[in-house]
Amino acid sequence: MADPKGFLTTERATPTRRPVDVRIKDWKEVYNEQNFGDLQKQAGRCMDCGIPFCHNGCPLGNLIPEWNDLIWRGEKQSAIARLHATNNFPEFTGRLCPAPCETACVVGINADAVTIKQVELRTIEEAFANGVVTPLHPDRISGKTVAVIGSGPAGLAAAQQLTRAGHTVVVYERADRVGGLLRYGIPEFKMEKAILDRRIYQMEAEGTRFRTGVDVGGELTGSALRAKYDAIVLAVGATNWRDLKVPGRELSGVHQAMEYLPWGNKQGLGELKEEAPINAAGKHVVILGGGDTGADCLGTAIRQGATSVTQLEIMPRPTEERPSSQPWPTYPMIYRVSSAHEEGGERMYAVSTEEFLGDGAGKLRAIKLVETELINGKFEKVEGSEREIPADLVFLAMGFVGPEKSPLLSQLEVEFDERGNIKRAGDFQSTVEGVFVAGDAGRGQSLIVWAIAEGRSAASAVDEYLMGETQLPAPIEPTTRQLLA
After folding, report:
1. CA 368 vs CA 297, 299, 316, 391, 397: distances in Å
2. Structure pTM?
3. How far apart are the C-alpha atoms of 62 and 86, rounded to whole Å?
4. Residue 25 φ then ψ, to 5°
5. What is the number of H-type helices and E-type strands within the chain?
6. Hey, what domains does the chain have and what are their CATH numbers?
């Protein structure tokens, strides 16, 4: 293990966040850099448990005790080698993953868990800073071709693994730049896009080809894909957003979160020549949904200069301690405060939207709320609790319900499961031979760490399909996939 007494003598400590009044004036990431010596002490808190439950908490199976020990010893190059052995993009997960590994940490049974996520992030950042992250070229070219549809984390992970296995891989993206939700859904203050771009440069140097602005299913049909490529990986995500059908939904000012966040990112990157079509400056903003996407809208609206921001959640306020129904090592639903929540706004719990109210000219002016109680698994209205709150803009951040039923999926003739996701077998292959599914498109809306794990596993399955065998690792084995389906 690292420091034999580390978990007893060293308290948990994470990097400090930049002062709120400073960071809301720019779009840069909110955290200050932690002194490397302090980080080593944090890594030294790892107990190297006989049964490392953090492995179970991490869908990628990251070798957490090993790279904690290596960082504690200062062996940075060996640490990044162990980290990259299971995770293609630790710079993404180190910023964006909610760290189920930490809630499964054995130290966390009766003390504060090891700062696994921060050690992971600093390990990869040290590697980039020291020039250790270089292109990995395949030993041989297989002559096989693969099309990956979608350039989110699942598509990128599948593409990188398959390129390194020697296949010719082309990633198709309908947007004008690569990255999917990493680029257009994640605000700059959570992950600066230069972090994404440097990894794309590595993938291009390895041989992965990217085609952006392509309407796959339109100008490039499913039949053309089948004729051109030996295998296809569908990593199109679960972008079919959940809507709220209440009176007034048609009013100007009511938008989906993913109609708003891309404009905020473009503004943060200085890519807009004129004002964004959806801008919170000087407006009363209400966000429906208490999750990460809602917090992203909150931080974006604050940076744009919103007059007020209110985030609504239909569920009661979570407790600050782990509920007895969610014991260690499960991931508990507890009250969490993101960096955006520190910056301002109000959070309201146990409320439901009854109606969007207009000004008589088709514009939103307020929303009508009612308090709710959860009784026998159903939300019941609290009589007499109706009230209005002002709203010039409403953002619906209530999650997603599966992949879009696009022309491409019809052309490929894939089938869907009872949840609306693309149906697949334990080997990630859809009901159409040679067409594989990775990430949210097959799993449903989930975490970035699951997306990368699925991309790696799907790549292993594709490689075996093309070559008859594979040496690519699969975090999610076929038997496990069948159990999860």
Report:
1. 21, 24, 18, 10, 18
2. 0.95
3. 6
4. -90, -5
5. 20, 14
6. 6-129 (1.10.1060.10), 145-239+401-484 (3.50.50.60), 254-396 (3.50.50.60)
d(CA 464, CA 460): 6
Our measurement of the distance from residue 190's CA atom to the centroid of its chain's CA atoms, rounded to an integer in Å, reads 11
Rounded distance between C-alpha atoms, residue 90 and residue 132, angstroms: 14
Measured CA to CA, the distance from residue 67 to residue 119 in angstroms comes to 8
Tell me the pLDDT tens digit for each residue of 475-484: 987 655 554 5
Six-digit token string for 413: 């003739």
Per the CB < 8 A criterion, the answer to whether 435 and 444 are in contact is: no
In one letter, which amino acid is 157?
A
N-terminal to C-terminal alpha carbon distance within the chain:
36
Strand boundaries in 293-432, DSSP class E: 308-313, 346-349, 351-358, 364-375, 378-381, 387-390, 393-396
Residue 273: exposed, middle, or buried by beta-carbon count in 10 A (0-12, 13-18, 19+)? exposed
Q: Please provide residue 373's backbone torsions phi and psi, each rounded to the nearest 5 degrees.
A: -130, 140
pLDDT in tens, 172-221: 999 999 999 999 899 999 999 999 999 999 999 999 999 999 999 999 99
